[in-house]
Specification:
Layout lengths: L2 H10 L3 E2 L26 E6 L21 E7 L5 E9 L7 E3 L1 E9 L2 E2 L5 E3 L7 E3 L4 E3 L3 E5 L5 E7 L8 E2 L6 E4 L12 E5 L2 E2 L1 E7 L4 E7 L1 H4 L11 H10 L7 E7 L14 H10 L4 E7 L2 H6 L11 H17 L3 E5 L12 H17 L8 E3 L1 H5 E2 L2 E5 L13 H12 L4
Parallel strand pairs: 18-19, 18-20, 20-21, 21-22
Antiparallel strand pairs: 1-22, 2-17, 3-12, 3-14, 4-10, 4-11, 4-17, 5-9, 6-7, 6-8, 6-12, 13-16, 14-15, 23-24
Helix pairs in contact: 1-9, 3-9, 4-6, 6-7
């Protein structure tokens, strides 16, 4: 760990509430019990991930994602965990029709839309290059030998011969990916680019075969998704966290996967299903998941004021939602960590009622950490991010400009604080 990181850690250590593992979990509410989720095979761990969303959110001002047909998607991603044997996960969970993959490849990106020809590997599914994924279903590729480098970009290509309809995807990738001109161009070193996209489609994960590793799933909203961070820089807080954990001897075997959705809520659908519904798919089914870090709820508090007052929630309802997630994680042997809700002063969410709810939720998070019904540990993101001279607001040096999302420095500070959960 660098001296700079050490200094940042010393400044944020006092913000961490790290208590003993909870003995039992109570509470709950009208939330789903843990459903039957496909359990990952032994030895696999998530190296990269993106939570699936519907391509049509139904939100005014957000047009549906365009269908793809006879085009090749080249999606650029940066895993933070290395490996020599990999597989990919594809999702058609929000599709309205079967998804046909004509061919799929993985390779190292060189620059822009180009890949290193020597690294291109074909991906198969049950031994076949062509596969159809039913509407509402997910699929995992066969293992392939591929040198996956931590902290370097790779390209996953999907040739889509038939119309996909509105695609399942991850809408705010904060990464430039590419759509080809017509035809199958999967694996070509130079892709004939028809257009670029700022979303990932169908690709929901990359796993590596490494029995020595355990998974950390960061589960939340736009502050987990990295809204406000630099595009194409991989400066979301989970990216920073993965690098910091990899640099510590005590935590170097931990692999971080991002399951954040910008605009997501705990108790109601918005830009994706509510967290209590997607938890099984986006956390419990992750390969070798051992820890989950939950940071969600501020949109539940703020959105109802201007979106739909009928979706107004109380702090106690948010707490009950947390307890549902904790109970389900513990039932799978996963440690459940939480993060306090960060300031919204100056944002549209800023009003006395919302502030009171945020304070109540944060007080519960702090006071119940390690106790029955609470998270096993809690990191005080609020204390780290707020302006000491104006605690209802984000520290100006961390503010992306909209008074709710962070810039790169703010996400680095979140990661510094979260790192201590695992030490």
């Amino acid at each position: 760990m660098t001296d700079m990181t050490s200094r940042r850690r010393r400044r944020t250590t006092t913000a961490l509430i790290a208590l003993a593992t909870a003995c039992a979990v109570g509470g709950g509410g009208p939330f789903p019990a843990s459903a039957a989720v496909p359990v990952a095979g032994s030895g696999w761990v998530g190296a990269w991930g993106a939570a699936p969303q519907p391509g049509d959110t139904g939100i005014p001002g957000m047009p549906p994602a365009a269908p793809l047909q006879n085009e090749t998607l080249r999606m650029i991603v940066q895993p933070q965990t290395s490996g020599a044997t990999v597989r990919i996960r594809l999702s058609n969970v929000f599709g309205d029709r079967p998804l046909t993959i004509g061919r799929a490849t993985i390779a190292r990106q060189t620059s822009g839309s180009a890949v290193d020809a020597a690294t291109v590997r074909s991906l198969t599914f049950g031994g076949r290059q062509r596969v159809t994924v039913a509407a509402g279903a997910q699929i995992v590729s066969d293992p392939v030998q591929f040198s996956l480098p931590a902290g370097q970009n790779v390209a996953v290509d999907l040739f889509l011969p038939q119309s996909t309809g509105v695609p399942t995807g991850h809408l705010e990738a904060r990464q430039t990916s590419y759509v080809s001109t017509a035809g199958d161009h999967a694996g070509k070193p130079s892709l004939p680019v028809g257009r670029t996209t700022a979303s990932w489609f169908f690709l929901s994960g990359i796993d590596v075969l490494d029995a020595t590793r355990q998974g950390v799933v960061t589960f939340g909203d736009s502050l987990t998704d990295g809204t406000g961070s630099t595009v194409d820089a991989n400066h979301r807080y989970p990216d920073y966290l993965a690098k910091e954990l990899a640099g510590q001897s005590a935590t170097k075997t931990l692999a971080v996967v991002n399951s954040g959705i910008g605009g997501g809520r705990l108790l109601h659908d918005r830009i994706g299903p509510r967290a209590v519904d997607r938890f099984d798919r986006d956390v419990l089914s992750k390969a070798s998941a051992k820890y989950v870090l939950v940071h969600v709820g501020i949109n539940d508090i703020g959105v109802a004021d201007f979106l739909d007052p009928r979706e107004n929630v109380t702090s106690q309802q948010i707490i009950a939602g947390y307890q549902s997630l904790i109970e389900r994680a513990h039932a799978r042997g996963i440690k459940a960590y939480g993060g306090t809700l960060t300031p919204v002063g100056g944002h549209i969410y800023d009003n006395p009622t919302a502030q009171k709810k945020r304070d109540e939720v944060n007080e519960w998070l702090r006071s119940t950490a390690g106790k029955s019904g609470g998270f096993d540990k809690v990191v005080d993101f609020d204390a780290v991010i707020r302006d000491p001279s104006n605690p209802s607001r984000i520290l100006p040096a961390y503010d992306s400009g909209d008074h709710i999302h962070l810039n790169d420095a703010g996400y680095a500070a979140m990661a510094d604080a979260a790192e201590d959960l695992f030490l």
